[in-house]
Amino acid sequence: MPPMVARPPDPGRHSAAHFAVNRFIREENTLYEAWVDIDADIEAINRGDGAYDAATRRVIVNGRTYGIHEDGATYPISGPGLIPVDRATTKALRILKQNGGLTGATQRRFAAEPSITREVQEAALRLWQMITSTREGDAP
Amino acid sequence: MITMTMMSDMLIRGRVESRVLRTAVARAFQLSDDAVFVTAADAIQPPTAQTRVFVVHEDRDMPGDFPDWYSISIDPALEPRHAEAMDRLAHELSLPILTDAPDDRQMTLHLPDGTGVVVDLIQDHDGAFVMTPEIRRLIDRASPRVALAS
Description:
The structure holds two protein chains of two kinds. Chain A is of the alpha+beta class. Chain A is about 35% helix and about 20% strand. Chain A has helices spanning about 10-15, 40-45, 85-100, 105-110, 120-135; strands at about 30, 50-55, 60, 65-70, 75-80, 80-85. In chain A, helix 3 (about 85-100) crosses helix 5. By secondary structure, chain B is α+β, with helices and mostly antiparallel strands. In chain B, strands 1, 2, 3, 4, 5, 6, 7 and 8 form an eight-stranded mixed sheet that branches. Chains A and B meet through helix 3 and helix 4 of A and strand 1, strand 4 and strand 5 of B.
């Protein structure tokens, strides 16, 4: 059990459904899908149900691995419903969210951005479709 | 179509004109001005065939102490030069710049004296990066002083 009280991840950065378009893009990030019951995972961590590794400050609960900062803030890493995204894909997702999907403005931006390749566009669009078609609480 | 690598976002503590930024970025990467393309996100233009550094002005009104937000994509061959170039860019502009850092809750602060230091800095829920007293001291120490006539 971690020595600190675990707190949920920042939804503005990690929630696929609620990520904020003005979050600084990190080299690596992991989003959690809307169906993942983050609060239940955090409660389980605080009950001591997870397998905690003090050396890496990581905990595995319900099949998902989270990191825990010294102040208790958690961040998702891997597992069911957790999606790692790189910078370019994050940027493409941000553009999709800013423009409300694959609009003309999104397509113009995608066409002009040399870091958003065809593969990145396809990956971001798949994620966007999944994000917009999944409601909170839905099972996968 | 040119393919580039997206590098860290860049937040500047101060406003910079596009043409000034273009020249400063070119100097920082030791390129000609023609190799740098600066454009605005809301009226984006694609890079030219000569472009090796593509800078997009994402927002000029970010809350907090670093209001000017840019994203940068570069020719993959320039990646080894990127960190040093960001230090040089802060020097060229005489303005502090924030970029990514390896640790999740840290940022790299590029200072006007051309050095870079990793600092603890978390983005607020409204998107603001707000300077801590330690960061303010670092910036003050590294900023050029105007000599006062006695």
